[in-house]
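Tutorial handout. Part one gives the primary structure; part two gives the three-dimensional structure as tokens.
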Amino acid sequence: MKKLAIMLVIGWLMSGCNTPKPEMIQEEALKAVQSHPEIIKEHVLKIIRENPEVVMDILKEKNIEVLQLVEKGSHDLAQKRREERLKHDLAKPKNPKIDSTRPFIGDPNAPITIVEYSDFQCSFCGKAARTMHELVEKYPRKIRVFFKHMPFHEISRTEAMYFEAIARQSAEKAWEFHDMAFERREDIIKEKESALQEIVNYLGVDVTRLRTDLENKEIANMIDDDVKEGRSFGCDATPSFLINGVLVVGAVPIEEFERVIGLVEGKK
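Part two.
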């Protein structure tokens, strides 16, 4: 914002303090900065300090342009940070715990392992879950996906408990529960465990064993460990993914996952 204000005032000064055209402001400002950068900077800062209302008037007149510039700057900064994080992780991948006894989809010997940190009540996580299925279907021998938990809501923690308890009976049914829970997210918000029970009945899960496993502290501790692990890797939002230790945050398009997978493979 400060840089923008300086550029606008430079253009205003160089145009004789009349109301110039936008292209004139840009052209004169660039010429001035390139010719005498330090002198112009000090001069403009002095004017801003002595006449702050001038800057405010210009910013008010150009409020839409300013907003567009701020939004672009915010987007560019976020992209820069993502690329810096990607470069760092490619050089020094994170090391999540991989337990092959936990439910996963894909080839058990796949060279690419994706660890997903998710919340059943996160709509973006539901979108990302579909992307994970799409990736595994597209690259059946290349990718395997482990589902871990970062519940931010009481009911989503309950859903995480159900997922892990059902997995003790059948990994396949656990993934079916996973898909149905995301599809019926709004029903579960309203009806809570009665909606979960409907899913359990549909899947034909052993209810007696399920109730016993839901009280098992090992499952509760597993979910707590998932949360701690994810946060230790900088996963402060859901969904977050580790692709062979490289962090990707958000329900990004499948093309972005493919890009990162390509970089991971290229590194090898």
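Part three, for discussion. Strands lie at 104-106, 112-118, 143-149, 240-243, 246-249. The chain has a mean pLDDT of 84.
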